[in-house]
Each structure stands twice: as structure tokens, then as C-alpha cells.
Amino acid sequence: MIDVRTDLALEAREIYKEKHKEEKEIDGIEFIEETKDDIKVTTVKVKNEEGAKKIGKPTGNYITIEIPDFTAYDGETMNRVSEVVAKALEKLIKIECEKTVLVVGLGNWQVTPDALGPKVTQGIMITRHLKTVMPEVIDDSVRPVCSIAPGVLGVTGVETVEIIKGVVERVKPDLVICIDALAARRVERVNTTIQIGDTGISPGAGVGNNRKQINEENLGVKVIAIGVPTVVDAVTIANDTIDLVVDSLISNSSNGSDFYKMLKNLDKNEKGALIREVLESKVLGDMIVTPKDIDLVINSLSKIVANGINMAVQPNMDMEEINKFMG
To answer: Which ranges form a coiled coil (predicted)?
Structure first.
């Protein structure tokens, strides 16, 4: 197998099982799968350091929501997905209603596939300041919420975690929710998958730009990460395409032919290494691909995630009340 880029715990589990040809569940990993109407929800629980080492993800919970086709064009489906996101978040948000939540939109406004986080912050119901300036309107049933979109190192010159840590030290939130664009291993999961985890996040990890982790260890407060894969590695696409071609040739070749034997004996590790070597020599090895309708999709996904967060952090309000508040 080639070295692939993915931020999804679900895919990291799949890759490990495929590589080691394991049919039973990985030691240290618990996997739960359920379907709510046509929305598939899977949970990967990394239970100990053994499981964490095997799939390369910190111990904790990773909930993956698979979005139905054409969700970006269907307001009703968007609302249903938001409700599923809210329920998944509620499982991880274990603080009293009066406690403060800081929502952080990671990413670069100027790059559409990376703009998910900042766009989500635009749709968050902000209430922290109103507790002071409008106490007669905001009662104790409304949770104090604030948000920031700190930008990226290449624009600000400041590590994102340093900006967030400064805000955390000043505001003293009881929970931080970070939203970021991710990278996927499989093309079909791009823009169709939402991952929610309680272990924090490493900005840019999926595209090879590892920054300092945004987690409880570095911030001193619990961090929940929400991400959507918006890009896929070009090497991954090339590798999968060649696999499909080889499988097709095998199925259409005579069992006893030399050509058939050659294809059956093709080492996938060697093939993957050759693909990466060829692409890198052509200055394509670091190419990241995103779908052509990314503008529309990012707008829709940001609304889904923002509404999900609003419902989860304001459990005493329904969506209609939240929309009225947002104007």
C-alpha cells in the first residue's frame, strides 16, 4: 500500500485492516455502525495506546456522518443532517448549560476548499456578550457562545494554536469546538463526510502541513473537532485508477495466460511507490484535488455544521428559535 493522506479515523482503520488483511476488529479499537433513515453514522473508539498506535489516531471517540447524495441542493436533507450532527455533538458535550463555548473556524478565507471553518463561524449563534449588554433578553437557559476565525500561519505569521490559546486564557471557555477542512483517502468521501472527534486536531495534517496540535494538552480545556474532507491527494486518485484498470484487465484475461499471471503477481506496494515516484518527478506528487462545485458545497456544508453546533450548544432552543435569534 502507498503512503496515503487521510484525516479520517474511519479510513485509518480501513487502511490498517486492508494492509494486515484482518477480518476481526483491531485490538484496542471498537467500531459501531448505525443508519438513521438514509444517513449512515459510524463510531470509531480508540480505546488504548495499542489501538492508537495501529491506526495513528489519539485515544478517544471519532463519529463519522455520511451525507446522502445531492444534500447540497436539498434544504430539507441539510436540516436532517444538521440534526444528526447535533445529536453526535451532544454525546461529546458534557458541560452545564451556563458554561461558555468557544467556536474556532480554522482555515483560509481566500482558498475555497479551506474556507469551511471561517464560513461556519458566520452561522454560529453568538450570545456571550449579550449576557452582559442585554440581560433582560438572554436568560440562564441560553449558553454563552463566542467564536473566532484566526486565519492561517501563512497569512498571519502566527501559529494558530498561539492565537487560540491567547483567546482561551482571556475568555476562559469551558469547551472549544474547532472546525476545519480535512483530506480523505477515498474520493467518494470528499464533501460527503463529517467527522466529529473529542481528541483535538492538527491543522493541515491531511495535506502535509502539520502545525502544532490544538488539543486539551496545549489549551488546558477540552477540544472537540469537526471536519469535512474537501480534498484528496492526486497520488491516491492515480493509484485507485490504476487498481481499477488492473482489476478490469484481470477479469477479462485468460486464467492461464502470461499476461494474467503478471497482473495477479503485481505487488501493490511496488506499484504505489512507482506511482508516487513518477508523479513527484513530474511535479505532481504534492497536488491536491477538489471537486469543481466546491463553492456551492462549502456554502451548504458550512450551514449544516453551523446549525448542528447551534442546536447542540443551545439544547433549550429549537431550530426555529435559533433562526429567529439569528435574524
So the answer is: none
CB atoms within 10 A of CB 299: 14
Q: Supply the pTM of this predicted model.
A: 0.87
Domain locations along the chain: 9-230+294-326, 236-281
Report the candidate in 163, 170, 171 with the shortest Cα–Cα distance to residue 145.
Answer: 171
What cell was used for 186?
477515498
Burial of 68 (0-12, 13-18, 19+ CB in 10 A): middle
Q: What is the pLDDT of residues 218-264, one digit of tens each?
A: 999 999 999 999 998 877 787 778 777 777 777 777 666 776 667 66
* Whether 49 contacts 69, CB under 8 Å: no
Pick the CATH number of 9-230+294-326 from 2.40.50.100, 3.30.230.10, 3.40.50.1450, 3.40.50.2000: 3.40.50.1450
Whose cell is 497482473? That residue is: 263
